[in-house]
Amino acid sequence: MEKLLNLWHGTGIYHLEPGQALMMAVCMLLIYLAIKKGFEPLLLIPIGFGGILANIPVANMAVGGGILHLFYEVGLPTSVFPLLIFMGVGAMTDFGPMLANPKTLLLGAAAQIGIFGTLLGALAITAMGIPGMEFTMREAGSIAIIGGADGPTSIFVTSKLAPHLLGPIAVAAYSYMALVPLIQPPIMRWLTTKEERCIVMEQLRHVSQAEKIIFPLVLTVLIGLLLPDAAPLVGMFAFGNLLREAGVVERLADTSRNALINIVTICLGLTVGSKLSAEAFLNLKTLGILALGMVAFSAGTAGGVLMAKFMNLFSKHKINPLIGSAGVSAVPMAARVSNKVGLESNPQNFLLMHAMGPNVAGVIGSAVAAGILLNFIS
């Protein structure tokens, strides 16, 4: 009997706490949404499964020498995982639409207003003294970067400023990226008229191979000299893109955008999931992070649309304001949403390639915003 009792006391069921059971259910919900609804399955499935593993009592996979803790130590404090993902994204990215219409850089920049607006909002909430909703400057900066709708950038910044908030911030960032088709369209329709949504843009000019090769080199040097804190993100993004456009290292480009990014995505997802422990996630501060993240994302969407409307006041060739929403950086989903909403108003109006300009600019903008936050707050 004593041995049976010891066996029972050693089971996870005996040690299972209500919070851990709840977090397991939440993680299973993430997996369900990924499989049944198609919400960012490449990340939500490993994140959800990592969260389940992290909440299994006694197993200790997310602490000490556990496998998830080892993944964390290798990839996040060192920033290896998000930087390798940025390299892979760069190898999949075509800068052509942005180079063909450089004005879209302004749309990507305007969409970053959500980041800095949320930073001030988090500090304002702290000043109000709401119990359980106090944020330090470093925590506020980590929450604000959710507005860039860029998961690797959010993880990169949070791992440096507030690593204890990595779980809720990563889940918020990737959840809002996955929910782009639900969150953005109402904001886009509310801020535009039917006539604006029907604007047909001119066909983009052809961008030469030389331009595509020169751009990542110039981008790296320019950002590196002006804002060194953003150089790691922008540099890896530009390097991946150079592999794509050079035309002589297809094997490296293929590895970066396929095998390597897939391996890192698995490790990153499991690592982020390991931070979804009950004690770290089930508190008022986490709810505040989720709410502020939604505000940041919505403000970024609105900022891009409003900038396009403002530019139209002075531009001879009108911009369809819908493409401004793609400046939030969720590549390429935000561009697809811009195209979808445009087709609803005019079935002959294809905005996808036009929207890819601000979409790519948003990736650069979020990386630059991350560098600014790290420079001012670290």
UniProtKB/TrEMBL annotation:
It catalyses: oxaloacetate + 2 Na(+)(in) + H(+) = pyruvate + 2 Na(+)(out) + CO2. Its cofactor is Na(+). It is found in: Cell membrane. The chain crosses the membrane at residues 12-35, 42-68, 74-93, 105-130, 165-183, 213-239, 259-277, 289-308, 360-377. GO terms for cellular component: plasma membrane. The keyword DNA repair does not apply. Its main location: membrane. Heterotrimer of an alpha, a beta and a gamma subunit. This is Oxaloacetate decarboxylase beta chain. GO terms for molecular function: decarboxylation-driven active transmembrane transporter activity; lyase activity. It is a multi-pass membrane protein. It comes from the Bacteria. It is an enzyme of class 7 (translocase). Keywords: Cell membrane, Ion transport, Membrane, Sodium, Sodium transport, Translocase, Transmembrane, Transmembrane helix, Transport. One of its GO terms (biological process) is sodium ion transport.
